[in-house]
Amino acid sequence: MAVKIKIPTPLQKLTGNKAEFISEGGNIRELIENLEKEYPGLKERLYDKEGKLRRFINIYVNEEDVRFLQRDATPLKDGDEVSIIPAIAGGGK
């Protein structure tokens, strides 16, 4: 399944400064595995040592948060758009 991926600025150093590109995968996990082959080091930024998506990484498929779908088992179809967005923490005064 060919899907469009949007990569946030902090991770673009791993993708050769590409912000968007096309890749393939039947679900989010497969997509990230394929991205890891092309852009080594990306997967470890998205998954923890137990193989779970990191808490501070938000992934959206067509603007729907995968945490409310099937997490990294969320199926993908041709033409889907996947956005990877790191959570941003703010400080107090």
Provide the descriptors you would attach to this structure in a database record.
2 helices; Ubiquitin-like (UB roll); 5 strands
3D architecture notes:
The chain has helices at residues 28-38, 42-46, and strands spanning 2-6, 20-24, 57-61, 64-65, 81-86. The protein has 93 residues and is an alpha+beta fold. It has one domain (2-86): Roll (Ubiquitin-like (UB roll)), CATH 3.10.20.30. Strands 2-1-5-3-4 form a five-stranded mixed β-sheet, covered by helices on one side. Strand 3 (57-61) and strand 4 (64-65) form a beta hairpin. The longest helix is centred in the middle third of the chain and has 11 residues, at 28-38. The chain is globular. The model has no long low-confidence stretch (mean pLDDT 92).
| Integer average pLDDT | 92
Helix-residue proportion: 10-25%
Note poorly predicted spans. none
CATH superfamily: Beta-grasp domain
β-sheet strand percentage? 15-25%
**SS summary, helix count:** 2
CATH class type: Alpha Beta
The number of distinct β-strands equals: 5
The neighbouring-strand order within the major sheet is 2-1-5-3-4
- CATH architecture descriptor name: Roll
What is the approximate shape?
A: globular
Sheet having the most strands = 5 strands, mixed
Topology diagram in text:
Layout: E1 2-6, E2 20-24, H1 28-38, H2 42-46, E3 57-61, E4 64-65, E5 81-86
Parallel strand pairs: 1-5
Antiparallel strand pairs: 1-2, 3-4, 3-5
